[in-house]
Specification:
homodimer, about 150 residues, mainly alpha, Arc Repressor Mutant, subunit A, 3-stranded antiparallel beta sheet, 7 helices, disordered C terminus, DNA-binding
DNA sequence: AATGGACAGTTACATTTGTGACCAACAGTG
DNA sequence: CACTGTTGGTCACAAATGTAACTGTCCATT
């Protein structure tokens, strides 16, 4: 019978690695701020772009709109972001970080970057190759074409 | 303000890639057999090792025991696997694939391997580097040390 | 302006997953 | 043997996520 070694199977390994890295990364923002991943993504996106609609956040951070909606509400209740209606299109709301939100963002970002750097440093010379390969994978897995269609 | 580009951030990219690849992979077994990922992992593990306890499956496939328990039940109801009590330890049950289960396994495995091969072929010469880098990442992310602690 | 389709965002409901309690069986100690 | 702690597995409940319907708004056509 043809066999498959699960532990060597690429989709499985990718999932496992992604989960483990995410889990470790949680130690960066978890203990201090108790964020979920969707909340972190919204925070990161708003920190990066200043002002944005929920729709645009979902597109950029590859999340389904309900996930964004819930994360936005949670962050709003925490007073980390504020909504204001858009003048151009009254269906959408423009979201921006409050000063509290920016403060949290400024606290987390250096830690996040340090975390990433540590990971890449540990990879040593292979780091560059990994990043190149991931870029290819992103294209192959048609992530570019989907633009937010992960939505999981 | 220090910024972070989410789309270039390693944990985010890994998650996104893993999700996209898993999603694509689903097209391999989804349309024909309608398996969930946990079910696929149990099937793959039993196909690989013939007979195993639920605990051992969880360890090998990095799943929490409740997830395994549910997947096992689903496969049992589908008559793809059978349980029998262990002689050595009457707490555990030895799980094996039925002939139906083996048949499904034999149908899916070649497709899975072809899927993986296609992915690696598309990566071209970078494929080997990716696999090497992933191996390193697996060690760095302490996956080896955890042995099933993903459990998500 | 009135009609109808598309779209941003929320909500309700269903499904999946995680957490902790639990049961029965083990294993060691006295 | 009891007694205690641990372990394989399940179950009930809670939390997270996906799906689909719905609201209000936009926009194109009439």
């Amino acid at each position: 019978m043809a066999k498959l070694q699960l532990e060597a199977f690429l989709p499985y390994r990718l999932n496992r690695i992604a989960a483990a890295v995410s889990q470790d990364f949680r130690s960066v923002y978890g203990p201090h701020h108790d964020l979920t991943i969707p909340e972190w993504r919204v925070l990161a996106t708003l920190g990066q772009f200043e002002a944005m609609s929920a729709k645009a956040i979902g597109r950029h951070s590859a999340m389904h709109k309900t996930k964004v909606s819930r994360a936005v509400r949670a962050l709003e209740e925490r007073r980390w972001l504020r909504r204001r209606p858009s003048d151009e299109d009254r269906r959408e709301e423009i979201l921006t970080l409050t000063s509290q939100g920016e403060k949290a963002y400024r606290q987390i970002v250096p830690k996040a970057l340090a975390f990433e750097r540590r990971l890449l440093d540990q990879l040593g010379p292979k780091a560059g190759l990994l990043l190149e390969a991931l870029e290819h994978l992103e294209i192959i897995a048609k992530i570019a074409a989907r633009d937010g269609s992960d939505q999981t």
